[in-house]
Amino acid sequence: MLLPDDFFASLVERVDDVIWAVSYPHFQLEYLNPAAVAVFGRPTQAFMDDSRLWLTIVHPDDRDDVAASHDRLLQLGTVERRYRILRPDGEQVWIHDRAWLMRGQRGEPLRLCGVARDVTREMAEQEQLNSTLKLHRRFIESATDPIFLARVEPDDTFVFHYNNPAHRQLTGISLEALRSQTPDTLLEASQAATVKAHYRECVRLKRPIQYEERLDLPAGARDWQTLLVPVEDAAGNVIELVGIARDITPLKEAERKSRDAFEALDQLLQASPVVIYECLPTPDLIPISISSSVERLFGYVRDELLNRPIWQDMIHPDDMVQSLAKVHALFAGEGPIQLNYRLRHRDGHYLQVQSEKRLVLDTGGHPIKVVGAILDVTGTYRLSQRLEKLGQQLPGFIYQYLLTPSGEGRFLYASSSSMVIYGATPDELAQSDTAAFGVIHPDDRYSVKTAIETSAENLSHWHCEYRIRHPQGHELWVEGLATPERLEDGSVMWHGYIADVSERKRLQLELEESEARFRRLASVDMLTGAPNRRHFMHCLDAELTRVKRHGVDSCLVMFDADHFKRINDTFGHVAGDDVLKALVSTGRKALRAHDMLGRLGGEEFAILLPDTSFEGAVTLAERYRQAVADLQVDTGDARIRLTVSLGVAALRTNDSSDSAMERADKALYAAKTSGRDRVCREGEETGDVTIG
Fold first, then answer.
1. Are the C-beta atoms of 553 and 603 separated by less than 8 Å?
2. What is the pTM assigned to this prediction?
3. What is the mean pLDDT of residues 619-638?
4. C-alpha span between 56 and 83 (Å, rounded)
5. Pairwise CA distance, residues 17 & 229, whole Å
6. Are 290 and 305 in contact (CB under 8 A)?
7. Cis link prior to 610 (omega < 30° from 0)?
């Protein structure tokens, strides 16, 4: 059954997009729907009277392209274009216009038709997104570590689409050669299988993972330590993997050489005060080889220790928990460990020892043994305790900073990590603190100096977080801690350290952003997505303040669904929820962008109409009422038709939120009692309710 023409005419009259038709060959405007008034800011009759008005309001920079597009339309039969138009108030609006040529039965041109849509907000959001993406790309392009990106396809395959200059240089793979490749097409089969296993693990865990791998690439076989970071979409699906690699070939080659030379090294270490050993790759650390120096240092003959689980029996009970935790970390893949604990001598007394353990892997990444060394440090333990205060500051940039009474500062001592933090050598910092303060972020420089002055005056502990603009071009967050002491000449010397806390700061800022996002969620009705009562009342209070201060016109509309209980009783609460969602969805289409439709509770809703006259509010309410009346809600096997009743009240300068809500509610009640499916307004002078 064909729908009547008046149905399509009514539909075209109500859509928000501009629909137009121009005759051919006279190019006289035949039709322009009412949406043109809102989009172009001019009455439709003005376009009817002046056939060139449309091109006249096009932005001068876009006018030639728009004019030329008419020729393409006549040649190709269809054209799609984006351009700017200027409204009478000077506002610039972006338009997305799709046009086509209608032909008669013999193929002769009859008229030009089109649909134009306001895409100003979309263009602004796209511009902001492009700016952010450019910033991210600039960072990746300048990174010294190799970085690559791989898309996660719906069929669980991985497709590379980008690598930065550092990656191209170290791997010998150009961007063109990498793009659209998969691990299977880029790598040898066994290596590709290992790489894909890591990628799948990252996707499954939805968190960063780190691993080591050896790959045969155009630049040669290299060992890599890779940090793989998943990127999720709004639905929580991993859509991309970001890989940050580090070339560890020299380290792995050294490990391989050390395995081959172990026997020769053992011969050289027989007279060493260090005990060298190899153990099975299990937490029991059963020794399979040990240097003969163990007898001189600990009183044991090698045969008493080999192939026996004696390590845990020899450790002091108070040191057991901490030592085992580090051993478990070793087997968890966290790298070599350093231990300080007490080890029992054969005659029963304990020695303070320092030990390092490293897990050795074969070329397939499987553990084959643990190698390590034990050194008796009992004689220096007391000294290490005195230095523990400084040792607690590690790791980081260790320093002694001197500030003279005249205000001149320099670093009496600076560790080599000063290059990592400040990009300055210890020798440079020993001459003057200029290089250090010169790279502190300008916005943080004053607070850092103030904190130093306060610490110097009160001899209080110095603690400061600030940003560094490193000479190499990157920015980092650092944390500084120091203890001051006053010298005899009045100078103040600080003993302290500064560490890179960029990652922690990034996580902190992400957490703050997440908390802000959760606060926004607290203002939304979870069923319909509309502002909830608390947020709506907050916005109403703010609008009343604006009305009182500036005397602007603003209105409040209250409405609810007619016979909503009957809908719930007849079709069920799920259907009722679908109806409430449809009311909000319809409101978003029928109302303006700056209008606010909120859910007050149940089927009760309100609309805040800023900068709207009373008559304009009645018109908007009536437009919304009609949109709901035309609505059909499909839910389950049912198709529900519904209506709403609305009450309109103007906000007054002496209003409170309660008084404004009360007047709008009275008007809503009048709409209900006078038959429903209608808009009622409060009386402008008498305060009586009248039907609109």
1. no
2. 0.33
3. 92
4. 13
5. 42
6. yes
7. no
Per-residue b/e over 498-508, b at no fewer than 16 CB within 10 Å?
Answer: bbbbeeebeee
Q: Is 477 helix (H, G, I), strand (E, B) or coil?
A: strand
**pLDDT class for 266, splitting at 50, 70, 90?**
low
Alpha-carbon separation of residue 206 from 66, 209, 240, 508, 677 (angstroms): 48, 9, 11, 19, 51
Average the pLDDT over each of 270-279, 446-455, 593-602 and give the range with the smallest value. Answer: 270-279
Report the b/e string of 146-170 with b at 16+ CB within 10 A: bbbbbebeeeeebbbebbbebbbeb
What CA–CA distance (Å, rounded) separates 377 from 382? 9
Q: In Å, how far from its chain's centre is CA 357?
A: 39
Q: Enumerate residues 6+ apart whose C-beta is below 8 A from 305.
A: 287, 290, 294
pLDDT tens for each residue of 2-25: 556 566 667 778 888 989 888 888
- Give the bridge partners for 148, in sequence order: 163, 243
- 28 CA to centre of own chain: 51
444 contacts: CB under 8 Å, gap ≥ 6: 466, 467
C-alpha to C-alpha distance for 102 and 94, rounded to whole angstroms: 26
Q: Helix H segments across 99-238?
A: 120-142, 165-171, 175-178, 183-186, 189-205
- What DSSP assignment string belongs to 251-298? HHHHHHHHHHTHHHHHHHTTTSSEEEEEE-SSTT--EEEE-THHHHHH
Asked if 603 is an active-site residue, the reply is yes
Catalytic pick among 278, 428, 543, 603:
603
Would the pLDDT of 555 be above 50? Answer: yes
| Phi and psi torsions of 15, nearest 5° | -70, 155
- What is the per-residue pLDDT across 100-120, written as a single tens digit (0 to 9) for each? 999 888 888 888 899 999 998
> What single letter denotes the amino acid at residue 603?
E
